[in-house]
Amino acid sequence: MNVLIVDDSAFMRKWLRELIENQKGLRVVGVARNGKVALELLDRIHVDVMTLDIEMPVMDGLETLIQVMRSHPLPVIMVSSHTDKGAKKTLQAMEYGAIDVVLKPSHPKDYQKGELEQQLITKLQEASNVDVRKLRAIRQRMTRQLSPPPLHALKKTIVAIGTSTGGPRALQAILTRLPNTFPFPIVIVQHMPAPFTKTFADRLDGISSIGVQEAVHDKKLEPGYAYIAKAGAHLTIEEKGGGLYMCCDAPPDPGEYHRPSVNRLFMSLSQITNVQVMAFVLTGMGSDGKDGAKSLKEKWRCTVIAESKTSAVVNGMPGAIIEAGYADGVWSLEEIIEQLAQMTESE
User: Fold this and answer.
1) Kind of pairing, strands 2-6 and 49-53?
2) Where are the domains of the chain?
């Protein structure tokens, strides 16, 4: 896989190049100190995936990404700083078509951490599974692969969504289309580095009719609100005194890769009685959510919907649900939005 590195820091370019070239199957075919140089290189060399810095002179990461998606659409992984400004621009980049983000090390010692290196390499390797055609438009032709049962919501219902790569754009499409009269709480796990979930929730809250918040420990779920799991902490739901409350401090399991985990959220919901669960597994790499969906399927009042590959940027997570036989329906993103809107009308 051919990788192009775009970063204004000579140190970062050197560190990324050495890291990538030590991995089997990955090859650095070019480095650029700004977006203008990167676009010139793309006209001359074949690139499979790009790492792209946000803050650069001459042409910054956002403008570069817009130009790349117009003329050379390919998977782009943003390399962002820990700052609030960097987080906001990175979320804009995800909206424009970037598939994922990794954080720049904030301290020299962090460059030696194997976890950071493995995270970047894994995302680069998995980029080959991204359908680039779907990065340019989130809406897709409505194509139903299975004939799922209609969503008849009960009075006591909770909507749960799990997603990863491609998720920010999908979540924005869903939440901004729901009216402020949406009658149920929505709990969401989006795989995303720690500085971004609060910024992401605030951004969605500003452009959505329903309320959107980062999950808060021991806070009661309220109808008409969406709660996004905090990065680095599992989100589980528990029943207390007839209400549903968020728990954001569940300890990690040994060898657990994702934190928060869709599996953990779904499994906690499978333990709640007298509540209907409507679970949606959207675009994402890997299979997080499959074990949780299995637990949910053992629950009487539960519907599991997997996003169709006609709209999923990456079919890994929804595909795992379908292959395991846990999906009650396979719907495009547009169908999911329409069904959720109908739940509002039925109330």
Assistant:
1) parallel
2) 2-131, 157-346
* 187-215 per-residue burial string, b: 16 or more CB within 10 A, e: under 16: bbbbbbbebbbbbbbbbbbeebebbbbbb
Q: Cis omega before residue 251 (within 30°)?
A: no
Whether the pTM exceeds 0.70: the reply is yes
Question: In sequence order, which ranges of the chain are alpha helices (DSSP H)?
Answer: 10-21, 35-42, 61-71, 84-96, 114-126, 167-175, 196-207, 262-270, 290-297, 316-324, 333-346
> What is the per-residue pLDDT for 109?
58
Does an H or E element contain 189, and which? strand 186-190
- What are the residue numbers of the active site? 164, 191, 288
Same fold, 2-131 and 157-346: yes
CATH 2.40.50.140 fits 2-131, yes or no: no
DSSP 241-287: TTEEEEEEEEPPPTT---SS-HHHHHHHHHT-SS-EEEEEE-S-SS-
Q: Which CATH architecture has domain 157-346?
A: 3-Layer(aba) Sandwich (3.40)
Tokens linked to 164: 């990863």
**213: CB partners within 8 A, 6+ apart:** 201, 205, 225, 226, 227, 228
Q: What is the pLDDT of residue 228?
A: 97
pLDDT (tens digit, 9 = 90+) per residue, 62-94?
Answer: 999 999 998 899 999 998 876 566 678 888 888
